[in-house]
Design a protein that fits this description.
Elements (H helix, E strand, L loop, with lengths): L57 H4 L14 E4 L11 E3 H6 L10 E4 L9 E4 L1 E2 L1 H9 L3 E4 L1
Parallel strand pairs: 1-3, 2-4, 3-5, 4-6
């Protein structure tokens, strides 16, 4: 293959439609812009996507409700029965949870919840524990350490 034989991919090149070239073309006179109005003017770009041409915008017309706390922590929850994938006597921390696929992104912390049973002695080191989870870990002979 030579440089002179190169061709663009099929369908990637097409002829642009030329507007404003007379009535017979189908896009003459107003060139597809309609009559008057903001869209007919030169430089007709809208200031922002929700621009309504001076009409009171929809997002300002509808009522606002609720509150979104900027300082809220996004905690990842794991139930205690999920810890059965670890071998007895092992140390379970956030990195170990990620390696087993139980946590993909720890975000602002990991909390162990007490749903289910734990039949192994584990040392669990995460940010938060529920009271029942802490009880069950210690009942199984393990330790619950807050990091």
């Amino acid at each position: 293959m030579r440089l002179g034989e190169l061709k663009p991919a099929e369908g990637s090149k097409f002829k642009t439609f030329r507007v404003g070239r007379g009535h017979g073309s189908g896009a003459g006179k107003t060139a597809g812009r309609g009559h008057k109005g903001q869209g007919a003017r030169a430089g007709k770009r809208r200031a922002y996507p929700t621009h309504e041409g001076g009409q009171f915008p929809l997002f300002r017309r509808i009522p606002k409700r609720g509150f979104k706390n900027r300082n809220a922590k996004d905690i990842v929850h794991i139930n205690i029965h999920n810890l059965d994938v670890f071998e007895a006597g092992s140390v379970v921390d956030i990195l170990a949870l990620q390696s087993k696929g139980l946590v993909s992104n720890p975000r602002d912390g990991v909390k162990i919840l007490g749903n289910g049973e734990l039949g192994k002695k584990l040392t669990v080191k995460v940010n938060y524990f529920s009271a029942s989870a802490k009880e069950k870990i210690e009942a199984a002979g393990g330790r619950a350490e807050v990091v």
